[in-house]
Amino acid sequence: MIAPLTADDVTLAVERRNPPRIPMIQAKWWGEGLREQYGARLQEFDRFPDDVCMLWIDAVDVRSMGLSWELPTGTAHDAAVVIDDWAKLDEFIEKLPNPESDYPFSLLAERAEAAHKQDRYVMLAWWQLFFERPWSLRGMENLLLDYYLNPDPVHRLHDALCTHYEALLRRAVSELSPHGFWTSDDLGHQTQPTMRPETFDELIRPYYHRMGKVVDDLDVHWWLHSCGNNTPLLPALIDAGVDVFHPVQKHTMDEQAVAREFGDQITFLAGIDVQHTLQEKDEEGVREEVRFLIDTFDGPGGGMCIGAGNGIVSGTPFANIEAFLEEAVRYGQDHRSRIA
Questions:
Q1: Is 217 contained in some domain?
Q2: Is residue 285 part of a domain?
Q3: What is the CATH number of the domain that holds 61?
Q4: Considering only CA atoms, which of 5, 6, 14 is closest in space to residue 180?
Q5: In angstroms, what CA-CA distances link 246 with 44, 95, 182, 290?
Q6: What is the Cα–Cα distance from 51 to 149, expressed in whole angstroms?
Q7: Of 214, 58, 62, nearest to 124 (Cα)?
């Protein structure tokens, strides 16, 4: 068993202040079908560390809100339209959960207390922020049209969500004392951001800045997961206060160029490619990719964590997962000792 890093050690990596090794975060991200494929055999990977204790919540559970209309079932995620008419927005906002009373934090509090006693880095986490959440409510196609046809209700929705997130985060920090906050917005396609930079600046960036101010006031790190090519948006994300970016998706972003341009401004949770590298390469090919990521992102002061780029899905060779985890520890320790 490899002992997890302390909270201070992970903080050193995030803040680029010379950690003892590269933190492993979301490295054992078991995705669709993997547990069914390997079952209890995945417990063999318990010997590798989880350097962060993740506390997951559902920030907006629409099925618990008591909305007056029937919610869709059995449809694709991007077509499960909850707010099919903007006339329903007032009721939706009115019935958003109360951050002070509608979230039972008792179980999370027990986990947080145990992690703090073990000197672990604790992370509050929820999926979806100001792009993923709205398109899950409006449907992807509707929302992209709304950006041009209905910007005012988009702003109203974003403002309500942001106010809700701010209050929820403040309560969580007060009761759970996390060191970091993890969330997601898949802002990119394979070749470019999903929207024009001007659209991002107008409709989304102001709310990122509000979240950035809250996490700064609360003195927690902000970790953002966003798939696709986010390169043109990184300056705006850094300016808004994002501390750690994940995953720098292979074949969409140029890892070396990104590290060279932004490595002194933001920390990267570099995610190994789960689509091709882990699925298709042999063990040595996987180890070679791990070394490439570490050589690229781990600077003298740190500034790097390592994990899976997304969920590791069924069909991934067991030996490749083991090679990834072993090399991340072995070469990560070796690289830190050589460049620190």
A1: yes
A2: yes
A3: 3.20.20.210
A4: 14
A5: 26, 32, 10, 15
A6: 45
A7: 58
Q: Which domain holds residue 220?
A: 7-339
* pLDDT of the residue at 77: 78
Who's near 334: CB < 8 A, 6+ residues apart?
A: none
Q: Is residue 1 part of a domain?
A: no
Beta pairing class for 304-308 and 267-272: parallel
Q: Which of 234, 308, 229, 291 is nearest to 267 (CA)?
A: 234
List of residues 6+ apart from 183 with CB closer than 8 A? 125, 126, 127, 128, 129, 222, 223, 224, 225
Residue 2 falls within a domain, yes or no? no
Q: Per DSSP, what are the bridge partners of residue 268? A: 245, 304
Q: Which amino acid is at 4?
A: P
Over residues 56-94, the pLDDT tens digits come to 999 999 999 999 999 988 888 777 899 999 999 999 999
Q: Quick check: 294 and 260 in contact, CB under 8 A? A: no
Cα dihedral 295/257/189/220 (nearest 10): 70
Task: Quote the number of domains for the chain.
Answer: 1
Residue 51 backbone dihedrals phi, psi, to 5 degrees: -85, 0
